[in-house]
Amino acid sequence: MAKIKGFKAVRPTRDKAYLVASRSYLSYSENTLREKLINNPYTFLHIINPEYSSNVQLTSGSDKYKLVKKSYEFFVANGIFVTESKPSLYIYQQVTPDNTFTGIIAATSVQDYLDGAIKIHEQTIAKRQEMFTDYLTATGFNAEPVLLSYPKVPRINELMSAYMAQRPEYEFTSTNKVLHNLWLIDSQADIEEIQQLFENVDNLYIADGHHRSASSALLCENSRASTQNWTGVESFNFFMSYLVDDEQMCIYDFNRMVSNLNNLSVDSFITQVSKVYDLSKMNAPLKPVRKDEIAMYIEGVWYSLLAKAGTFNASHCVEHLDPAILSKNILEPILGIQDIRNDKRIGFMDGKKGLMGLSAAVDSGEYAVAFALKPITFTQLKAVADQGEIMPPKSTYIEPKLRSGLTIYTIDDDKN
Question: How far apart are the C-alpha atoms of 160 and 185, rounded to whole Å?
Fold first, then answer.
């Protein structure tokens, strides 16, 4: 049973929404970030990077979080942000050159996460989780929803379609050629029906935002411990999410590149690989499609690699996945990469850049070898989550990628 509710979003005025909304600041190069901060006084990046606007030295930890809070309050005080007059749900739609994603932004129950009704497939890092919790405690808001998926419910789509026939509250195209639309669901009857429909959904699945979910849960537990007679309706018992049915979710392959061959010659490396994979040269670069197949690019040549039977556990929900087989058979024993999260020799490239992106990275000399994998399916992801297992790191590149600042959920008071 999934519990959601409407909330009074703090959000930009209609005329400034396209100026406020931003990608994650980590996705911008330093030059692009500076250009946006210089030329756009309304971008949410000013809140996330308060040192620039405040003309102070770079800070970190609690000092920076206080500046973030101050910058956010400046946006509110100057009318860039307004607060919804009553709790609402929000239909958010992204139209990309390849896909259309339509879902509902809502406040989602932390208790569902704690009880395991919101399922995870990725391991969180305790230090990073605590950092996000400190950030939430100091700033008091969620500005980017966690991406959650659920089995398609046709009636939810019918209710959304009725609102989408009207003019959107927001309608703008960002510079990456994505159309963004947002509608408000403010009818109490419709909100209650959607809530009831989600109560009939057994589980939600985190597609993107594991650390944000975990930090919201830790914040909730801390707040409950310091709050007498908490009831479960307080704002800290919820976090902002974007709920999209699983038929829309788009998962791309997340490919690997390694900078050196661990002191092996190319011939020796290929000999070692041939012990665990059946190798065949390709006449042209082709994406892998067969079961247990990946592709490899080295010294200007593409190879098809088919994992040999018995070199991995084919019956295990995680160990039979291509990223796990690659780590077990090549990255760890041959290339000596034991921790792909932190080993500086390994790089990752999302599948949207294609095989040409991988070959270019190797041809440039930055990497010695590249591996192209098949995309993980959502069925595979759900199987891992349902069995309480964890996917190998960097196994999926999932869209939609959400923007910060379009809707903000406040967690430092009970105005929601």
Answer: 8
231 and 272 both lie in a single domain = no
Is 0.90 topped by the overall pTM?
A: yes
pLDDT of 320 > 80? The answer is: yes
Range of the domain at 72: 4-250+399-410
Residues 226 and 363 in one domain: no
Phi, psi of 239 (to 5 degrees): -140, 155
Q: What are phi and psi of 277, to 5 degrees?
A: -130, 145
Owner of token pair 């041939």: 274
Domain count, the chain: 2
What long-range pairs does 280-283 form, CB within 8 A, spacing at least 24? 280/304, 280/306
Taking only the tens place, the pLDDT of each residue in 87-135 is: 999 999 999 999 999 999 999 999 999 999 999 999 888 888 999 999 9
Inform me whether the pLDDT recorded for 52 exceeds 80.
no
Looking at the fold, whether 389 and 258 belong to one and the same domain comes out as yes
Domain identity same for 177 and 293: no
Quick check: 391 and 381 in contact, CB under 8 A?
yes
Residue-wise burial string across 375-413, b where 16 or more C-beta atoms lie within 10 A, e elsewhere: bbebebbbebbeeeeebbebbbbbbbbbbbbbbbbbbee
Give me the CATH number covering residue 321: 3.30.1760.10
CB 220 within 8 A of CB 107: no
Q: Are residues 206 and 98 in the same domain?
A: yes
Contact 201, 155 (CB under 8 A): no
